[in-house]
């Protein structure tokens, strides 16, 4: 999966770093660093991180694959379940 974070939108809330620490990390108090290529094993955590971003700064190509646990996790996170 390919990730893109709009760093102009990102406000450093760090929800993504909390939910997917193998992909996202905070460098200092305000700078987000991330791996632009996430492993398939990170799909569920990544779906939650994308859905939890309060400013919707994260997009993930390949996350909207076939339905299953990851797709359900993303829908539940988006619905607040």
TrEMBL record:
Its cofactor is [3Fe-4S] cluster. Keywords: 3Fe-4S, Electron transport, Iron, Iron-sulfur, Metal-binding, Transport. One of its GO terms (molecular function) is 3 iron, 4 sulfur cluster binding. It comes from the Bacteria. Residues 60-81 are annotated as: Disordered. It holds the Pfam family Fer4_13. InterPro entries: 3Fe4S_ferredoxin, Fe-S_cluster_ET. The keyword NAD does not apply. Ferredoxins are iron-sulfur proteins that transfer electrons in a wide variety of metabolic reactions. This is Ferredoxin. It comes from Streptomyces lucensis JCM 4490.
């Amino acid at each position: 999966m390919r990730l893109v974070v709009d760093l102009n939108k990102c406000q450093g809330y760090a929800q993504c770093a909390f939910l997917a620490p193998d992909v996202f990390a905070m460098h200092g108090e305000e700078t987000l660093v991330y791996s632009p290529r996430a492993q398939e094993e990170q799909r569920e955590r990544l779906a939650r991180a994308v859905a939890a971003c309060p400013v919707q700064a994260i997009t993930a190509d390949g996350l909207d694959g076939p339905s299953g646990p990851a797709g359900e996790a993303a829908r539940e996170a988006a619905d607040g379940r």
